[in-house]
Amino acid sequence: MSDIITAAVAALNEKIEGFDSTAKFEIEGEGAIVIDSDGARASDDDADVTLSADAETFQAILDGDLDATAAFMQGKLAMDGDMGVAMKLGAALS
Q1: Cβ neighbours, 10 Å, residue 53
Q2: How far apart are the first and last CA of the chain?
Q3: Per-residue CA distances from 38 to 9, 13, 17, 19, 92 (Å)
Q4: pLDDT truncated to tens, each residue of the chain (94 aa)?
Q5: Taking Cα atoms as reference points, which of 61, 57, 51, 42 lies closest to residue 82?
Q6: Which pLDDT score, from 0 to 100, does residue 1 have?
Q7: 27 beta partners
Q8: Do residues 64 and 92 make contact, with C-beta atoms less than 8 angstroms apart?
Q9: How many angstroms separate the Cα of 64 from the Cα of each of 14, 59, 61, 82, 93?
Q10: Most CB atoms closer than 10 Å: which of 3, 10, 15, 62?
């Protein structure tokens, strides 16, 4: 597992509370993280929504420097799956 994935899992577990769906972040060249009601973990399991971005974009979203909706609108964040779950995740990360 990459250092980026390890750090991201730890950061997400501190931020995410009460997320009752399943979402996956695919970070280009690094791996994937699944977030569900148990928290975040390194995994490539199926999810209700999959969000894909490069490591720089993902880090900016995680740090609060880039809004996930803005990243999506700018083409920096790709989404596959349930838009409602993506919106709930964005709210949980705020």
Answers
A1: 22
A2: 26
A3: 12, 9, 9, 9, 14
A4: 688 899 999 999 998 888 899 999 999 999 999 999 999 999 999 999 999 999 999 999 888 899 888 999 999 999 999 999 998 888 887 6
A5: 51
A6: 67
A7: 31, 53
A8: no
A9: 14, 9, 5, 23, 8
A10: 62
Tell me the two tokens of residue 88: 């709930």
This prediction's pTM: 0.90
Written as one letter, the residue type at 48 is D
Residue with tokens 């209700």: 48
pLDDT at position 18, please?
81
Give Cβ neighbours of residue 78 (< 8 Å, ≥ 6 apart). Answer: 51, 52, 53, 72
What is the per-residue pLDDT for 2? 86
Q: At what angle do helices 55-63 and 3-15 cross, to 10 degrees?
A: 20
